[in-house]
TrEMBL record:
Similarity annotation: Belongs to the beta-class carbonic anhydrase family.
GO MF annotations in UniProt: carbonate dehydratase activity; zinc ion binding
This protein's record includes keyword Chloroplast: no
Chain sites annotated for binding Zn(2+): 45, 47, 98, 101
Signal sequence, renumbered to the chain: none
SUPFAM superfamilies: beta-carbonic anhydrase, cab
Name of the featured protein: Carbonic anhydrase
Cofactor(s) demanded: Zn(2+)
UniProt keyword terms in alphabetical order: Metal-binding, Zinc
Entry-linked InterPro entries: Carbonic_anhydrase (IPR001765), Carbonic_anhydrase_sf (IPR036874)
Cofactor note: Binds 1 zinc ion per subunit.
Length: 137
């Protein structure tokens, strides 16, 4: 049985699907974007308080692709950004950070310690990882 937030999202999806109309195909859109350079990528933090669509007034006419991760860190998004360069070759990549970001409060050492407590069997992998802490001013 599905409960909690997933149940709520499934109910909202059912309502949304009643009026859904499929957008143009990806290949058609990507071809047009490559030709014009009109594609936009926004890299931002995944913090749910930050809504880049609202903040930047994004709507479907801008063909903006959203890439989000903890802290809006480029090193964590490189694979996706590289793939997007081959698909739509966006002419604009915007990086959007925000105040009171969690990655200014939760630094790599604390994240690693907590993860090792959860999964000590992969301690070496965790210790070798970077989680995108934001330090300094
Ligand atoms: Zn953040």
């Amino acid at each position: 049985m599905v409960t909690g937030p997933l149940n709520e999202m499934l109910a909202r999806n059912s309502k949304w699907a009643q009026t859904y109309q499929a957008p143009p195909g990806l290949i058609q859109m990507a071809t047009a974007l490559r030709e014009t350079g009109a594609g936009v990528v926004v890299l931002s933090c995944s913090d749910p308080r930050l809504n880049p669509y609202q903040v930047l007034g994004l709507d479907p006419t801008l063909k903006a692709t959203m890439v989000r991760n903890a802290g809006g860190r480029a090193f964590d998004a490189i694979r996706t950004l590289a793939a997007l360069q081959t698909i739509g070759r966006p002419g604009t990549i915007a990086v959007m950070h925000h105040t009171d970001c969690g990655m200014t409060h939760f630094h790599d050492d604390a994240i690693k310690k907590a993860l090792i407590e959860l999964a000590p069997e992969v301690k070496e992998s965790i210790e070798a990882s970077k989680f995108g802490e934001i330090t300094g001013s």
